[in-house]
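Q: Sequence in, structure out?
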Amino acid sequence: MLVYLQAYLEDGQFPPRRQWKSIVGRSVERRARDDISRRLQASDQWGVTVNVVERDDCSPLWRVAKDNPRLLGVCKTILNSIGNFVSRQFIQVCELCNVLTENLTVHKMCHCHVLERRRRCVWTCLYECVGPKEYGGFTQLNDLEQCAYLFRLITELNDLQFVYFALCKAVVKVLYIK
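A: Exactly. Output:
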């Protein structure tokens, strides 16, 4: 935007009204996007948005979904769950087991008895992905740290492909309930 203002000061030529509106709109949109990503990363004490939020760009997960539309639901579920995980907590009721919980994502991943079988699949898949030593360290973490660890792992991408796709699918099966 400064380029156009400097050009106006030098030669007195101002862009046409439509072009100026477009310039201002893009500038405001870019600043709002930067502000949102900055606030998200600042409120993320567990580092789960590292692979999900990029400045001046859309989330890499949206690019994955664009390249492979069958993964749109997976990407949406991951992004929504991470958003719920890092956002301000309030008491919610789990629709599956009718238990009051502060963090619905943590509840589903660690405590909901209805999802026990699906959760066992996640732990088995995690063990296969990271090996016994890393898994042993994982089991020593508290429930919030375990969820953060899983989110960091399942959002790891390599050339717009999930590095741990099997684990990603297992986690999404726990988090996404129709």
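The radius of gyration is 21 Å.
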